[in-house]
Design goal:
The structure is a single chain. This protein has about 325 residues and is α+β, with helices and mostly antiparallel strands. It has 11 helices and 13 strands. A 9-stranded antiparallel beta sheet has the order 5-2-4-3-13-10-12-11-6. β7 and β8 form a beta hairpin. α2 crosses α3 and α7 crosses α8.
Length: about 325
């Protein structure tokens, strides 16, 4: 990848300009014309490196309930189970990992739907032998930014949920539109505004307000990490004694390569309470061992991805018949 492409992708991940002509502003920072910025972004999209530019919302702030879930499925039923899990509209990520609990997926349900019931329904249809529901109790870090110049992951700030909103019809329309890819045109916010019956400045002001309230996590470019060279990723479940949890959670959240760091629910048979996602360009075995020694965390599980069955953007407030259709 060209140096200018790397600089461009870094900029749109970390500091996308919320101005009427964002690609012109990006060009000024990089010494490029607006036309060249748009041409490069179009090519990077076609090549699959850039997923999209758009709004990343905090689902919980808009009334959604979410969880990480794990199923234990016999090997002979893996493919059947994968199809059943993927078919649920609230599943955005689904991975096969090297553990007795072999399917790990994220599940979100809109207001009015029961999260546990939906997970149980998936488990029954997949004929799973066991189910773990691991909702988030506390967020230490969620910032999927890949530095393509330094070759590291995990940099970048994010907006924490500071308040929840009851989404009215106008909010739903704005969320639906802004979670879609931003048009790669000179005045993209104006295009979105016209389609919704707003002015360009009204759209930009709403985005800034949602960011300040934590309803929107980021407005940024999203990069496909495997296309960008970050081919190794491991989810690590750590058992941290209660008195150390906040200290260790904050420390791990600042470690290079860690993009996610959460405290999650535990069970008597499942004592792991801190979860990190680590991305890198090379094998992570030594890195995980180093973190274990550094923070005195001998009890942990390194859950490596064997296969990615589904990875899509979670779409909020999709058409009502999709949300409410029987699953």
């Amino acid at each position: 990848m060209e140096i200018l492409d790397r600089k461009l992708l870094n900029l749109i991940q970390k500091d996308f300009p919320l101005v009427p002509r964002p690609f012109s502003e990006i060009g000024k920072r990089l010494g490029l014309s607006e036309e060249e910025v748009l041409a490069r972004l179009s090519r990077l999209t076609e090549e699959g490196v850039l997923r999209q530019i758009g709004a990343i919302f905090n689902p919980q702030a808009l009334g959604y309930r979410t969880t990480l879930a794990a199923l234990s499925v016999p090997e002979e039923r893996v493919e059947e189970a994968a199809g059943i899990i993927n078919a649920h509209p609230g599943v955005s990520h689904n991975y096969l990992r090297d553990h007795r609990f072999n399917f790990w997926f994220t599940l979100a349900v809109p207001p009015g739907r029961d999260l546990s019931e939906e997970a149980q329904k998936i488990a029954r249809r997949a004929r799973a032998e066991d189910l773990l529901l691991l909702p988030i109790k506390r967020v230490f870090r969620i910032s999927v930014v890949f530095d393509l110049e330094e070759g590291t992951a995990g940099d970048g700030a994010f907006s924490r949920v500071r308040e929840t909103v009851v989404p009215d019809e106008e909010t739903v329309r704005l969320v639906r539109a802004l979670q879609e890819p931003l048009p790669l045109t000179p005045r993209p916010f104006n295009e979105v505004a016209r389609s919704l019956g707003f002015s360009e400045e009204e759209i930009l002001s709403w985005i800034r307000e949602m960011l300040s309230r934590g309803v929107m996590r980021r407005f940024a470019g999203l990069v496909r990490h495997t296309k960008a060279g970050f081919k190794e990723n491991v989810m690590v479940a750590w058992r941290v004694l209660g008195k150390r949890l906040e200290e260790v959670g904050l420390a791990l959240s600042r470690e290079p390569g860690i993009t996610h760091c959460y405290e999650r629910k535990t069970y008597p048979s499942w004592p792991y309470n801190l979860y990190t996602m680590i991305h890198a360009k090379k094998d992570l075995t030594a890195r995980i061992a180093e973190l274990s020694r550094k923070y005195d965390l001998p009890d942990h599980l390194a859950l490596r991805t064997l296969r990615e069955y589904k990875k899509v953007r979670l779409k909020l407030f999709i058409e009502e018949d999709i949300h409410t259709r029987p699953f």
